[in-house]
Design a protein that fits this description.
Largest sheet: 5 strands, parallel
Oligomer: single chain
Strand order of the largest sheet: 2-1-3-4-5
Distance between the termini: 87 Å
Helix content: 55-70%
Amino acid sequence: MSRILVIDDNPDNLITAQALLKLLIKDFEVITADSGQSGIEKAKAQLPDTILMDIHMPGMDGFEACRQIKTIFETRHIPVIMLTAVRTDSASRVKALNIGADAFLTKPIDESELAAQVKAMLRIKKAEDHLRHEKDLLEEMVEQRVNDLRIANDQLLMEMAEREKAEGEARLKSAAIENS
C-alpha cells in the first residue's frame, strides 16, 4: 500500500487534501503533518511514497523543508509536489524545482491534475525503488565475483610458486646427476 504525506499548517487543507486523495486514488494511506519540521520527521520515520507540501508555512517554509528532505539520505528519493496559493509566480516554481521538488501545483487545486501528478509520482517512486534494488543486487553480484576472482588469483599464485619451487628442485637434482 502506498503512503502519501501531506504537509500543511492549515488543518482544513489537511482534511481537504486527505478527502480529495481518497476520492481520486485507491489503495493508499495518508499521513499528515502540520509543519515543515514535523513533515521532515514523519518523512524520515515513515518513508512515504510521495509528499504533498504547502510552501507558505510559519517557521520552516515548504522550500526549506523540501531542501532538507532532499538532502537526507533516507528521504532524498521521495517525490515532492509543492502546493501554493500564495507564491504562484514563475520564480517560486523555479526555486521549488531547483531545490528538488518534482512538481508544482497552485491552489485551488484542479482535482484531475492532482490525481495525475500523484499517480505519476507514485509510478516514478516505484520505478526508482526497483532500479535501486536492481543496482544493489548487481553491486552484490560484482562484489562476489571480484571476491571469487581474488580467491582464484591467490590460488594461482600459490600454484605458480609451488611449480617454480618444484622446477628449481628438479633443476638442482638434474644438475647433481650430471655432475656425478
